[in-house]
């Protein structure tokens, strides 16, 4: 499938910036979620599983994607959701409502319980309750997910000097790093605080061609402010490209800011990977309304 690539009207120092629209790869399983699930779904079928179980938060792109992809491929889906207070708020939450409408069964757990998501004893308790399932980690990152993400960048992208992506669990940047050409530098823009991601990425990345740019998280995972919302709205109005508030807006803001600060050498060719996540905008607007902040003016 040929993914559209759009160039931004950048005029500084001969730099060119292109955005690879991975968000258009599928209407409901967009961007890196499609890539991460591709080989996991094949493996689940190969092993004869009837159900998929995974983890996520209130507005998780991953939860929404697993619910739809599971239904589309004939799997029962189970979502372990962080925050037991959400149990009675499914209809108020666009992401959970969408997942439920696509057949996902929920198990709401406290944040303390959720932190055990990689604990074998906790997983065994879930198997006892739900029966056999194929386990997909939070965010979808495992070796098969990285294999899928390795297909984002190809040799046809050899003209680019920098390949940039948002970072959540580290699977996407690992895959891009593994498939990047020797002359290319891979930059990851984490959507959350902390340097712990480096160790996660090193589990899967076979090259040393990557670097994390950590100063554009806007306060942490899922945190936004009026400046970022204005950026999302203006960017969409000027370029007709919607960005999500958790990942791609922080990534794109960071790259454009770095260009202004002369971080990139003159005549650099930069490729931004748009990893999707637009389904979260509706839920974020509900949060912004409660905080009396401006809304994101994008219909998805």
From TrEMBL:
Keywords: Pyridoxal phosphate
Domain of life: Bacteria
The protein's required cofactors: pyridoxal 5'-phosphate
Database matches in SUPFAM superfamilies: Tryptophan synthase beta subunit-like PLP-dependent enzymes
Family statement: Belongs to the ACC deaminase/D-cysteine desulfhydrase family.
Keyword presence, S-adenosyl-L-methionine: no
GO molecular function: D-cysteine desulfhydrase activity
Modified residues (N6-(pyridoxal phosphate)lysine): 33
Protein name from the UniProt record: 1-aminocyclopropane-1-carboxylate deaminase
Naturally occurring in which organism (per UniProt): Flavobacterium endophyticum
Pfam families, A to Z: PALP (PF00291)
InterPro entries named in the record: ACCD_DCysDesulf, TrpB-like_PALP, TrpB-like_PALP_sf
Domain Tryptophan synthase beta chain-like PALP as annotated: residue spans: 12-276
């Amino acid at each position: 499938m040929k993914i559209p690539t759009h160039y931004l009207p950048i005029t500084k120092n001969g730099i060119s910036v292109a955005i690879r629209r991975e968000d258009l790869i599928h209407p409901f399983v967009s961007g890196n979620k499609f890539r991460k699930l591709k080989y996991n779904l094949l493996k689940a079928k190969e092993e004869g599983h009837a159900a998929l179980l995974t983890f996520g938060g209130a507005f998780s792109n991953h939860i929404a994607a697993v619910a739809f992809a599971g239904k589309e491929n004939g799997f029962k889906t189970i979502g372990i959701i962080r925050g037991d207070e959400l149990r009675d708020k499914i209809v108020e939450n666009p992401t959970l409502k969408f997942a439920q409408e696509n057949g996902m069964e929920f198990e709401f757990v406290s944040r303390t319980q959720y932190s055990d998501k990689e604990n074998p004893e906790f997983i065994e308790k879930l198997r006892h309750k739900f029966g056999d399932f194929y386990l997909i980690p939070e965010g979808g990152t495992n070796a098969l997910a990285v294999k899928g993400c390795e297909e984002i960048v190809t040799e046809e992208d050899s003209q680019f000097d920098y390949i940039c992506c948002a970072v959540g669990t580290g699977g996407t940047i690992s895959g891009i790093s593994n498939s990047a050409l020797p002359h290319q530098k891979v930059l990851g823009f984490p959507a959350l605080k902390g340097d712990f991601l480096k160790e996660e990425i090193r589990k899967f990345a076979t090259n040393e061609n990557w670097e994390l740019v950590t100063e554009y998280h806007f306060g942490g995972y899922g945190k936004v402010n009026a400046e970022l919302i204005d950026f999302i709205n203006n960017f969409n109005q000027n370029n007709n490209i919607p960005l999500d508030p958790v990942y791609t807006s922080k990534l794109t803001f960071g790259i454009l800011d770095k260009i202004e600060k002369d971080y990139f050498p003159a005549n650099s060719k930069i490729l931004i990977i748009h990893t999707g996540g637009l389904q979260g905008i509706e839920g974020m607007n509900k949060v912004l309304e409660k905080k009396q902040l401006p809304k994101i003016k994008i219909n998805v």
